[in-house]
Amino acid sequence: MVNTNAEVTRLKDLMPASARMKTRIIIDERQSTVVTTPFPRPWHKSHVITLNWRLWQELSASQRDLLFLHHVSWLGAVRLIKPELYQGVAAVGLLGTVFELFQADAVGILAAGGLTTIAASQIWRSNTGNQAKLNADDAAIRVAQRRGYSERDAVRHLLEAVEAVPLIEGRGGMNYTELMRSQQLKSRLGTVNVPPPERIRTQ
User: Could you tell me the pTM of the whole model?
Assistant: First the structure.
């Protein structure tokens, strides 16, 4: 049986140096999932990755490495406070909503609030959508290569983890995002010829 302290230390060493100070690893056997990564809040100094220790041990060490690096990479890629189009629109909309509240202008409040909602939904989608998860897979594979894995082995172990997690968690099968990730990883291995269509990647 794997020792929890040794595993946490090993996973911390696996992370990129830039993520070690900002990521906390927590053990919680009450959760039903193998690993959980809450959406990061910009006002939090650190982000949490929670492992169900009993379920986590059902994966091989290599599968755990690549699955963990996927979650670390996704956390590191989330951008909420970044001067991009939708972040700017959301900020302007929020300021406009506050201004209209002070002006007691119902039409202005609805317009500014609607603008904020649309922009916020686009920010959420860009950080949690299919493309974000595919990007996290790519980043995890690159980090794994710096930790001694070959590209092919990293892809294979990540694919195995993606396919194993639903079984370990007692689900009927992979969800939509997991199926898409699996297809993308198989295309890198050459076991399927066609990666997910662009329209699906951007959902």
Answer: 0.75
